[in-house]
Specification:
globular, single chain, ten-stranded mixed sheet
């Protein structure tokens, strides 16, 4: 078994100390501190109490010193109370009138017509006015750091979401109506659903319905062969479905924060199946699900054992052919690192690069940055040090909090108050098939990329040498998704500021996963796409959005056309595997089954 490689870029304290302005070395933590923090972490779900305390202290001290802000808040509270009182008076007199306040576009909690009936219109509008006031309380205070303001506002929103009238049967007209019609049977079903979910959660079992989407039987069924297996990856080569194929094979680098088959779900919405049917030879990396024994694996191991080893295999199986590389989410970030590394070395094996919902700049990385600061990372590192990796439940919990209305409270209302089980889908089943993060890799990723933005700013090192995204010269296709809470599209768009090459940028509807898994024929999907040649002036994202028309349909078709335009022609498919890369089992391989 391969030993973890040493990140040469991190092992330079003596040289760094000679550089003016370099950060001083941090004293190694004591074991007792790490053990204590890890114990605290189990009680706080991985959230640093110090980080929250710093945010609230910053906010509270500046608010206390802002009498003008207090005056505005009192005035807003008074105006909102008057508005609600006038509404109550008019409604009690039987008059039909406009609502005091409308929910935000993305807030779907009060869309049912029952919420417009008395007294539930008063209840939900009072809640929304209160929610709006608390947003004013936690934002717009001079002197508070942007990060601390976001943390305080986020926590306030979570507490308000918990107290939403939707969550209680007495104040939820939909739940009351169902209960009356069914004589309380919905509550019986809800109790049974709750007990079943508790039993599965305690037993470490997947959610109800996931058994209908078994890997290799229902999902991840595109025929293929494993042609490489090392400590970190299996490389799958998919069987061709056309007589001739495009000369350039496609290597897909998925995120290791998830199982690869998000890109090979059911046959009708499998990106892999789509590409194979378009006449491409497709290779896919399937990542090993790390455990405590893999705690020493770092980002450079993921680069070498992942992208570079896979690229070597593809080049051996299809010799003399350049490769179209595509990366999704974290896999796209790693692919950008690999492309910059190859460019630095003069390695010209890449024909093009596609980044799907992948960030290279992390200064506007969305609400995930709420969990990223020095205090939080120090705390998280001690938890991972104790466990050897970041547990799947800790990872999933953070993502669920970002969309608590949709992923927590709405689900609880549907299943426990209304007694309805939402039908399991292939994407929901995949989402429950979580993975872990090795201690060293995740620490390096969060510190070097998220916190310090080393890659975008030219400080990220491989073999001791800093990389530059500006060295990338291959044509680039980047995809952002409109409602992405993991990789906001304006953050993805920033590749236009870094890479010195032809860039095609597409913005698709939906979110981080559903926006990428956007098969042709799916109703309601749309996208915008434009091309910027190397040397053309930069256009800011908002101007780009207004100037680029929306197109109905799937962005997959635009990408397929883009790939075809950069193809050197078609030829017979390459053989399965090579002498140094013999077939070692059928897809989906073995790593995808690791729990």
């Amino acid at each position: 078994m391969d030993k973890p490689r040493v990140d040469m870029g991190a092992a330079l304290p003596a040289k760094a100390a000679l550089v003016p302005g370099a950060a001083p070395d941090i004293e190694p933590p004591e074991t007792i501190d790490r053990v204590l923090h890890a114990a605290y972490g189990r009680a706080t779900l991985g959230i640093s109490p110090a980080s929250l305390a710093l945010a609230y202290t910053d906010w509270a001290l500046h608010l206390a010193q802002s009498p003008g802000k207090w005056q505005k808040l009192v005035e807003k509270a008074w105006r909102k109370s008057l508005r609600l009182s006038r509404y109550v008076q008019r409604r009690m007199s039987g008059e039909q009138c406009e609502s005091c306040i409308e929910p935000l576009f993305q807030d779907r909690r009060f869309r049912d017509q029952k919420w417009q009936q008395w007294p539930f219109d008063l209840i939900h509008q009072g809640f929304l006015l209160n929610q709006q006031w608390w947003h004013n309380v936690t934002t717009g205070i001079g002197g508070v750091s942007r990060h601390h303001e976001q943390v305080v506002s986020f926590v306030a929103r979570q507490l308000l979401d918990m107290a939403s009238p939707v969550n209680f049967i007495a104040t939820n007209p939909e739940a009351l109506d169902v209960t009356m019609r069914e004589g309380g049977q919905n509550l019986v079903r809800g109790a049974m659903n709750f007990l079943e979910d508790m039993e599965r959660g305690v037993g470490g079992k997947p959610p109800v319905g996931t058994e209908n989407f078994q890997v290799g039987r229902d999902v991840a069924v595109t025929p293929g062969t494993v042609v490489l297996r090392n400590r970190l990856i299996e490389l799958i080569q998919y069987a061709p479905k056309t007589k001739n194929v495009h000369a350039e094979p496609i290597l897909i680098v998925p995120a290791w924060i998830m199982k690869y088959y998000i890109l090979d779900l059911s046959p009708h919405n499998s990106l892999v199946n789509f590409l194979v049917n378009q006449g491409h030879t497709v290779f896919m990396i399937s990542w090993h699900n790390p455990g405590a024994d893999d705690s020493g694996l770092g980002l450079e191991d993921y680069l070498r054992l992942g992208v570079l080893d896979a690229l070597d295999a593809v080049s051996a199986i299809a010799p003399g052919r350049k490769v179209n590389a595509a990366g999704y989410c974290l896999g796209g970030t790693l692919l950008a690192i690999a492309a910059a590394y190859l460019a630095q070395r003069g390695d010209e094996r890449l024909n093009s690069m596609s980044l799907l919902a992948a960030q290279t700049d992390f200064t506007e990385a969305g609400e995930l940055t709420l969990f990223i600061d020095d205090s939080q990372l120090n705390y998280l590192e001690d938890i991972m040090w104790n466990q050897g990796c970041l547990d799947t439940r800790q990872m999933a919990g953070a993502f669920q909090l970002l969309r608590s209305n949709d992923l927590i409270w709405s689900r609880m209302v549907q299943q426990y108050l209304l007694g309805k089980r939402e039908p399991m889908t292939d994407m929901m089943a995949w989402n429950a098939d979580a993975t872990r993060m090795p201690y060293r890799m995740h620490s390096e990723y969060l510190r070097k990329l998220f916190l310090n933005n080393d890659l975008f700013e030219g400080r990220f090192r491989v073999n001791g040498k800093p990389l530059a995204l500006a060295d990338i010269r291959v044509p680039l296709f980047a995809v952002g998704t409109e409602s992405d809470h993991v990789a906001p599209w304006r953050s993805v768009y920033k590749i236009n500021l870094a890479a010195d090459t032809d860039i095609t940028f597409a913005l698709t509807s939906a979110g981080h996963n559903a926006g990428i898994v956007s098969e042709p024929g799916k109703l309601g999907r749309r996208y915008r796409v434009s091309h910027r040649r190397r040397g053309e002036n930069y256009v800011d994202p908002d101007t780009w959005y207004l100037a680029t028309p929306s197109i109905d349909g799937s962005w997959w078709l635009a990408w397929a056309e883009w790939l075809a335009q950069r193809s050197a022609g078609k030829s017979a498919p390459p053989p399965v595997g090579a002498k140094a890369y013999p077939a070692s089992g059928a897809a989906p391989g073995t790593y995808v089954f690791e729990r």
